[in-house]
Amino acid sequence: TECVSGCVCPEGLFDDGRGGCVEQKDCPCIHNNEWYSSGDKIKVDCNTCTCQKGVWKCTEDVCYGTCMIYGSGHYNTFDGKFYDFDGSCEYVATQDFCGDKNSSGSFSIITENVPCGTTGVTCSKAIKMFLGVMKNLSNRSATPLPAILEVIPESELLVQNGTVGLYLVIEASNGVMLIWDKKTTVFIKLSPDYKGKVCGLCGNFDDKANNDFTTRSGLQDNNPLNFGNSWKQSPMCPDVTQEIKPCDLKPHRKSWAEKECSIIQSEVFKICHSKVDPLPYYEACVHDACSCDSGGDCECFCSAVAAYAQECIKAEACVFWRTPDICPIFCDYYN
């Protein structure tokens, strides 16, 4: 290539990317398209990274795993596998009793999915948490979106049971945490002690996404429908035989859904795009916005965008996307 005229740094100094020359010990680091000076610290999940001579040096703590279930049948496993499963039944989301005859389980979390809309897609309506004593978060009203909370008997394992911001949080002393937005989004957090010891729709938490579709009988499957069907609680429930495509069934909603959901791929979330792939979240958003056709359509759209925003926060990309016109949150009168 031909020469390009310009300034270069003197011998022994380095270009700091910001128009200056510095010694190697003062080289900055880049994260999320932003420059950080030597000695600056950032949080990545549960670890702290420090900028040293232009390179990030991070602590190596093993972090809690998070499984997300949201909207109409979207799952993001502990190991980061993203898939859709629209079954109308009760299913094992995750548990630590996985078929080993010599082991016993300390917890089980069951999700009850019901149709939400006329296309056949399903939303999580109730969550049951077994900690020796059953915890039950459910909605008994006829609306497709959870609105009412019911908690039955306290367990001696329970540490915290209360509201944090928009979420209801239930934490147990055995390293299991359940976070619910009182609508259609559920986060399940597990301590690192459970790595490789759990099973269900949230996968096996062994840091490998390619073996997350392990059925109840211990076989690996590539088909999310076969995998999901194997974790139903009642054999009386029908198997899911085909993937539902609500935008094909409701084509008049498709252009509205694509227009609304385009925020995920827009400049608003630009800082996050290089950290968390927006495509599966955009597709899930369009799917939900098409399918929620019996009320709650804005709720479905907002939950889908919030799910992507939540993953961005985990990746240290904080995005302010809510506005008075887009999914506003109204604080309580005295808040």
TrEMBL record:
Its taxonomic placement starts with: Eukaryota, Metazoa, Chordata, Craniata, Vertebrata
The answer to whether the entry has keyword Disulfide bond is: yes
GO CC terms on record? extracellular matrix; extracellular space
Show the InterPro entries listed in the entry: Mucin_vWF_Thrombospondin_sf (IPR050780), Ser_inhib-like_sf (IPR036084), VWF/SSPO/ZAN-like_Cys-rich_dom (IPR014853), VWF_type-D (IPR001846)
Q: Which PANTHER family match?
A: EXTRACELLULAR MATRIX GLYCOPROTEIN RELATED, MUCIN-2
Per the record, the domain of life is: Eukaryota
Chain ranges of the VWFD domain:
65-238
CDD domains listed in its UniProt record: TIL
One of its Pfam families is: VWF
For this UniProt record, the keywords arranged alphabetically read as follows: Disulfide bond, Glycoprotein
What is the originating organism of this protein? Cardinalis cardinalis (Northern cardinal)
- What name does this protein carry? MUC2 protein
Keyword Glycoprotein belongs to the record: yes
